[in-house]
Amino acid sequence: MAKIMPNKNRQKCFKLFHIKSLQGVDSLSVFHAAAHLGIECVIITSPASTFLSTGYFDNAKEILNRKMLNSKKLPVFRRKIGGGLVLLDKDQVFYQVILKRNNPLLPRVVKNAYRKFSHAPIESFRQLGVAVEYRPINDLLVSSSQAKISGQGAGVIEDSFVFAGNILLDFNYKLMTDVVKIPEDRRELLLDSLQKGVTSLKRELGVKPEKDEVESVLIKNFLKSYPELHEATIPAELFELSRSLSETMISDDYVYEETGREHNKIKIREGVFFDLKK
């Protein structure tokens, strides 16, 4: 009887792509492109410019202040996975994990997948000087203050499972407050809630670390966590599809498509929400 051997070819296919910087929305469309192409990888990148991103089921008409977005010329990218409204800019580093749904590295229980793929970011925060813990289902919180320092999301695109998160080097609380569609007399309350519930490396350490250092630590910990993972050259087809997807996923027809969802609250951190209507 033939002996069953591990699939070494599959292990060789798990690649780490370090993309120093991508133009705004391309920093999110790139993991969508990898999922569509069936490329199993970890992507470490950062946006070169500021933009907003909504979850697939968000009703953008209800939560976005379009007048403010237009005045600041901020694009909106609608993800193909869930989660809520986020403000993304050059003071963030993204980590994105893409695996085929039948890959043995992928836990079958979603909460376990979040916990597993949060390990490298948590260890990275520790090495950067901030003790962080995983709060189910999708937040990383500073252990001492319980403020959110990383938001994460996951979902299925084509035949791939995707997991995406960010490390906040700094955060623009005022801009995030301005782009949300709420009554003007509640805007200061939202600002206060964000400042209490969301933090950053700069706020915790007293100084903003260099982005290169953060990316280096994150890469080291992902490679250490997954022996199957290896650094690789980024294929041209990934960039080509990413740019094409960006055009569609920031179009008004796609972003402001009626989803039927009613928004009464937005999430500040796990277990803490801000009421939009009162």
Notable characteristics:
alpha+beta; 8-stranded mixed β-sheet; 3-stranded mixed β-sheet; 11 helices; globular
Q: Regarding CATH, which class?
A: Alpha Beta
**H/E element string?**
HEHEEHHEEEHEEEEHHHHEHHEE
Fraction of residues in helices?
25-40%
User: What is the global morphology?
Assistant: globular
Beta strand %: 25-35%
The CATH topology? BirA Bifunctional Protein, domain 2
CATH superfamily: Bira Bifunctional Protein, Domain 2
Describe this structure in words.
The protein has 278 residues and is an alpha+beta fold. The chain has a single domain (12-273), classed as Bira Bifunctional Protein, Domain 2 (BirA Bifunctional Protein, domain 2, 2-Layer Sandwich), CATH 3.30.930. Helix content is 37%, strand content 26%. The protein is built from eleven helices and 13 strands. It has helices at residues 8-12, 26-37, 60-63, 66-72, 110-128, 173-178, 187-197, 201-205, 211-225, 236-249, 252-255; strands at residues 15-22, 41-47, 51-54, 76-78, 86-88, 92-100, 132-135, 139-142, 148-157, 160-168, 230-231, 265-269, 272-275. The strands form three sheets. The chain has an eight-stranded mixed sheet with strand order 7-8-9-10-6-2-1-11, with helices on both faces. A three-stranded mixed sheet has the order 4-3-5, with no helix packed on it. Helix 5 crosses helix 9. It is globular.
